[in-house]
Each structure stands twice: as structure tokens, then as C-alpha cells.
Amino acid sequence: MNVIIQKCIDKVRKFYEGICEDATPNSTNCLDCFKGQYFDDNEICYRCEPKRYIYVGRYFPVHVKENMEALRLLPDNFIERLLELDTINIMNIGGGPGSDSFGIKTYLMNLERSGQITSPKNIYILRVDKEEGWDEIAGFINRRIVNTNKLIFDARKKNFDITQKHEWNLQESKKYHIFTMSYFLSEIDPIKTRIVADFINSFASDNIAAVIVNDNERRKVHNLKFILFDNLKADRNDEWEDGTKCHCQFSYADEDRDFIGPKLNTNSMRYVKILS
Predict the structure, then answer these.
(1) pLDDT at position 21, please?
(2) Each residue of 95-146: pLDDT tens digit?
(3) What structural domains does the chain harbor?
(4) Which of 15-24, 144-153, 170-179, 220-229 shows the lowest per-residue confidence on average (mean pLDDT)?
(5) Using alpha carbons only, what angle is made at residue 98 by residues 107 and 82, rounded to the nearest 5 degrees?
């Protein structure tokens, strides 16, 4: 992870003093622009390359940690059934730079080290995001984790807006066992949340499937989680949530920490719903 964070911070330093025509109002540099987009009804977008590198530099370690904590909410019997499969299909909805896929890979590698994975597994991870700009840094991040003795990773990406039904053209017959959404619900509305539920219902495995949400603690997200879960087709009514806070277990160099201003402690809510 050190290589990922250092690459992003070095990139941000190159852009730092420039302000482009799409800058957030009243910003004086890239970091001001990035922070300001989350307030005063400004547009939240990551079309801008510096914003993407700032996002990873500030949030990647803690978001990976949050996603790993969310995966730990999956009950033992679900994990046991999942690990009976030879191929596990996972979709990251609004996958951005890939913090959820990195967390999944690390989580599975920990299961292998603990002896819970006893036979080879093909792990297919599809990152879906409408912003093509994430592809470069996400590809770099994906290459940081390689195959192990028992885990063969196949990471792919598709660029489309999952909240627009006319863009649902995956051109594949795969059904997915795990869907993750990390800081995705907070950027959509109730109507789009119902569309996301329809999408998951269309592509979830009938035999074993779960949905994992990692997002901020605001009431909006809590309400959208209810809408999402209520509109999912589920054979059971198993749900878990957790908001335990802890350190991300990553240390920044002093000068990098002072420059980029990272979030170091988890402060998200994690939700899990078992569909089958």
C-alpha cells in the first residue's frame, strides 16, 4: 500500500498550485477544490485527475479497512457456503479506484493464511463505475496484489452508469455472489437507489448472494439503505450493521500526512444483507 499512497501524493504535489476552469468555487489550490466539493451543494465529481489522486491519497487506506470490517460482518455459514464454490463472482458498484476490491483481495488472502481456503478459487471481480478516469489508478492498484497458491484473481472493469437502466449491457451471463458499494449510496437519491436494487436483483446468484454497503453515518445513507434492502429480492431476512471505529493501521510519513490530510480512523456504517 505504501507504493500506492506515495504515487498519489507525488502526483498531487505536481498539480497542487494549479486551478482549472472546473474548480470548486472559492478554492485556491487542488486540495481546497477537493474539500469544497462536499459542501454548499457543489457538484461531487472525479472527472479531474488531481481530485482522483487526492481521493486515493487521503482515503484509500481507511476505506480499505472499512471494507474489510464490512466483510467481517458476513456470517460464518455464508462464508462456508461461499468457499464451497470453485469460482466466486464479485461486483464493486461505483468501484472508483478499487478500495473495496483491494479490501476483498486482502480479506480473502487472510482467509487463506488462516487455513479456511483449502482448495484453489477463481475470484472474478468486476469494478463498475461511470467515470473512466478511475481506470488508470484502479489498474495500478489491482496489480499490487497478485495471485497466491489458492487464489487466482481476475479483475475486470466496465464503465457505465448503473442508475441508468438503458446502460445495463454487461454482455455476460455471470451471476454474482457478492455486491459491494463503498461510498456510493451517499451520492445517489431514492429513485436511483431503487434502480440499483433492480440491477442487483437481475444479476444476483439464486444460490448464494450478499450485498455489502460501506458509507458515511448520515441519516440520508441510513434511509437509502432501508430503500435498497427493502427492494432487494431475498430468500431470507438476515441483516447486520456495525459502526465500530478503529485506526486504519496505515502510517503516513509526517510530511505526507501534513500535506494530504488523510482520514486515519474508520467512521463509516457498514451494512450487510444476505439474499440467498
Answers:
(1) 72
(2) 999 999 999 999 999 999 999 999 999 999 999 999 999 999 999 999 998 9
(3) 2-274 (3.40.50.150)
(4) 15-24
(5) 35
CA trace torsion 6, 248, 55, 158 (10° rounding): 100
Statement: residue 50 has pLDDT above 70: yes
Q: Which three cell numbers stand for residue 70?
A: 464490512
Q: Tell me the whole-structure pTM to 2 decimals.
A: 0.94
The grid coordinates listed for 83 are 468457499
**Spatial contact of 33 and 24, defined as CB atoms under 8 Å apart:** yes
- Residue 18: the pLDDT is 66
Sign for the CA dihedral angle at 97, 101, 103, 109 comes to negative
199: Cα within 13 Å, side-chain hemisphere: 27
